[in-house]
Amino acid sequence: MQTQSCAPIARWLPVTAARPAMSLPWWRWVASTDSLTARLIAAGEGRKFRVRLLRQSIGFAFADEAMALGIGQRRYAWRREVALCLDGTPWVVARTVAPLAQCRGQRLEQLGERSLGSWLFQQPDLKRGPLEVTSQPPRFAAVDSCWGRRSRFQHAGLSLLVQEYFLTAMADALALPSR
Ligand SMILES: C=C(O[C@@H]1C=C(C(=O)O)C=C[C@H]1O)C(=O)O
Fold first, then answer.
1. Per-residue pLDDT tens for 110-148?
2. Where in the cell is it found (predicted)?
3. In the prediction, which pLDDT does 73 show?
């Protein structure tokens, strides 16, 4: 099994600390705390939204992910990587990691190409932790990104670390600045 121990450590800043480096249009996207799926569908103005499942597997989290989830690096985790596409073009890539021991009975593996966000935001007990931001590209996909963000969702004893990277293709389509 791949241990991913050589992967570079991602640098994350609290969202407010990244604010001075961020344009207002990007701030509105990056600092938003409602469903990104819903926002993308609205911004897509009739473009067809689709979650493309890139990878779903069980293995270890990256070191910074394990730390954010408060689990040891040798704890198995459920990992899901997707591209959120509008008319077939990826605008966002996302990687979600959850401790495997918390996933029993949650049916996460049955999500397939349904949006995790559409399901999560229907949960009445959902709590969301603070947003953190990075200007580094994702480690799980070869894409050009403008900003990345992450936050921890909690629902029914399950913690999910959701990391979302906004791609330059989205900036181009919506005429957003590069940063
Ligand atoms: C967390 C959300 O869900 C989105 C859907 C995801 C998925 O299906 O794996 C992953 C991250 C998100 O951007 C959201 O809509 O806010």
1. 899 999 988 899 999 999 999 999 999 999 999 999 999
2. Cytoplasm
3. 87
Q: What is the 3-state secondary structure (H, E, C) of the chain?
A: CCCCCCCCCCCCEEHHHHHHHCCHHHHHHHCCCCCHHHHHHHHCCCCCEEEEEEEEEEECCCHHHHHHHCCCCCCCEEEEEEEEEECCEEEEEEEEEEEHHHCCCCCHHHCCCCCHHHHHCCCCCCEECCCEEECCCCCCCCCCEEEEEEEEEEECCEEEEEEEEEEHHHHHHHCCCCC
Which residue out of 82, 111, 115 has the highest number of ligand 1 atoms within 8 Å of its CB and is therefore the one to mutate? 115
Going by alpha carbons, the residue nearest to atom 13 of ligand 1 is: 36
Q: Read off the pTM.
A: 0.93
| CB 164 near ligand 1, within 6 Å | yes
Instruction: For domain 13-173, say whether CATH 3.50.7.10 is its number.
Output: no
pLDDT of res. 6: 54
Domain boundaries along the sequence of the chain: 13-173
List the residue whose alpha carbon is closest to atom 2 of ligand 1. 117
Ligand 1 atom nearest to CA at 116:
8
For residue 56 and ligand 1, the question of a CB distance below 6 A is answered with: no
